[in-house]
């Protein structure tokens, strides 16, 4: 295993400590519960947004805490849902009179932890709602899910809900927006290589030198099939066709297009992928109104990428364009 | 080779085309000369800034074009200096009455191309100055250099010069600032793995599974030595000691600290490295005033990282804090 790591058991806490040290004025790290929160949370004048999941998907979600985005994130260990009490303690710390919205990718372990934390918080008199994100079109059920998985599209739900909350929308309204964005967001990714969790010390699965995993999950879960590596353009075509035909996105639609790197793929390749996806969408008559290229939801050091489309209307486009400030985008 | 690539010969143009398609309102791509420029360049009221080098270091420099940063970037092919005429044609397109500053990492091929382009531009009556960046403390001379190499520290020179130019400073003043920042900036990196140039199709050098290259160059050039992989903390200590003792940075200094990923190392590991570097600097009595964690100057898909320190005074700190807007940081 070739990684910057000390004791693999401390990989997540050491990462979170580094994150807090790099952002001393804006973020606070609470080691007992693995949580990262805004230094100024809770803001009583807004709904608080919380997201959590296993670690290993950075910048999702611990590096997405800040004005216009999350109020707190509570990660578990690498690829493990956060324990219920981590979620519960996080909610307690950012509880606002306007309520708390939990944004959760649809995995069985995460659902359980967050639903139980919601019940505990309700009993404390905190108003909480939980929204599940399930944008991955690759498979219907998966290793860790009933129903579709939540992947890189979660960025758009966070961003739109974050903007609405910042503008003072109430909890039901922020929930409505999140549900609306999730309903028009679709993603599919592929792995060129496996990833290596620090505690395992070896690749999570075997992928021969000339094969890819089409439709891979962000924890290395199987996708649609193994196949031979081929040209970037042809890989993009398969990903894009799967995404486009699922909603479907049709000629005349205006969209946001995201090319998300899975961790080990450099930015140059992501822009090459973006160019081809852009051209193929234009050929389909789809208008690209917003573009996102980079790492938004990764899978440790996996080489690969995912494509996400969001169908925009004026409301969503306006929320996505709102200002936000998070560590990963700081100059 | 597991990459998103079509014909390897087209890797760079396809990447640049994707970059321009993702930023239609702000960037323009000129395929004949591989150049990316601001759509509103030249701005007659400011000095124009141009940087170029081989490709494969993204976001340096093609994704660093925008207000407060570069006016144009002219990359060569992967790890190859841009041809003189690419540089010359770039200068022509962003020539401002206030002059043009060329920011060049210190490599023999790049120096030649930019110095000849400067002469050609001078003959056309364009006022041009060229500043060389050489922040890498690892080796005195290297495979492609006489003197030290320019690596991730170039970001700070770009940023400070970009801010000064945006505020209307004249060419000599922007040059003075660039030289001043370069003089107080030091970097060293290490490779956990080699990188794979698309046209070669295989790793650029062999690095056994349990070894690292301490002091690696951003083109895979040898550093100080091969050694066994060890704990992150201990690797950080060696990098940081080499950087700190070179200037030297001393107790009471205020600095910017950058942890730069070399392409294949995920953000989580970079923050773990940041945390340790931060703590070791505090122990040395050095005050960290600004923090940078992410990818600034990569080496294709190489796993590894570099540490950069900049000694701040009020002038440099103010320029680094100025607003800027580049594709890689867009929401």
Note down, in words, how this protein is organized.
Chain A is of the alpha/beta class and 331 residues long. The first copy, chain A, has 2 domains: 8-184, Dihydroxyacetone kinase, domain 1 (Rossmann fold, 3-Layer(aba) Sandwich); 185-321, Hypothetical Protein Tm841, Chain: A,domain 3 (2-Layer Sandwich). Helices cover 31% and strands 20% of the residues of chain A. The first copy, chain A, is built from 8 helices and 12 strands. In chain A, β5 (100-105), α3 and β6 (128-133) form a beta-alpha-beta unit. In chain A, α2 (84-94) crosses α3, α4 (154-166) packs antiparallel against α5 (171-183) and α6 (232-246) packs across α7 (267-283). The radius of gyration of chain A is 19 Å and the shape is globular. Chains A and B meet through α1, α6, α7 and β11 of A and α1, α6, α7 and β11 of B. Chains A, B: GO terms for molecular function: ATP binding; glycerone kinase activity; phosphoenolpyruvate-glycerone phosphotransferase activity. Chains A, B: Keywords: ATP-binding, Kinase, Nucleotide-binding, Transferase. Chains A, B: Residues 7-329 form the DhaK domain. Chains A, B: It comes from Streptomyces liangshanensis. Chains A, B: Pfam families: Dak1.
What is the name of the CATH topology of the largest domain in chain A?
A: Rossmann fold
How confident is the prediction overall: mean pLDDT of chain A? 96
How many domains make up the 3D coordinates of chain A? 2
Q: Look at the structure and name the CATH superfamily of the largest domain in chain A.
A: Dihydroxyacetone kinase, domain 1
Give the class-level CATH name of the largest domain in chain A: Alpha Beta
Largest sheet of chain A: 6 strands, mixed
The termini of chain A sit apart by 31 Å
Structural class of chain A: alpha/beta
- Oligomeric state, counting identical vs distinct chains: homodimer
Radius of gyration of chain A: 19 Å
Q: What percentage of residues of chain A falls in helices of 4 or more residues?
A: 25-40%
Which consecutive residue ranges of chain A, at least 5 long each, have pLDDT under 50?
Answer: none
Largest interface (CB < 8 Å): A-B, 63 and 63 residues
- Number of strand segments of chain A: 12
Order of helices and strands of chain A: HEEEEHEHEHHEEEHEHEEH
Count helical runs of chain A: 8
Please tell me the CATH architecture of the largest domain in chain A by its name. Answer: 3-Layer(aba) Sandwich
Q: What is the general shape of chain A?
A: globular
What share of the residues of chain A does DSSP label as strand, in percent? 15-25%
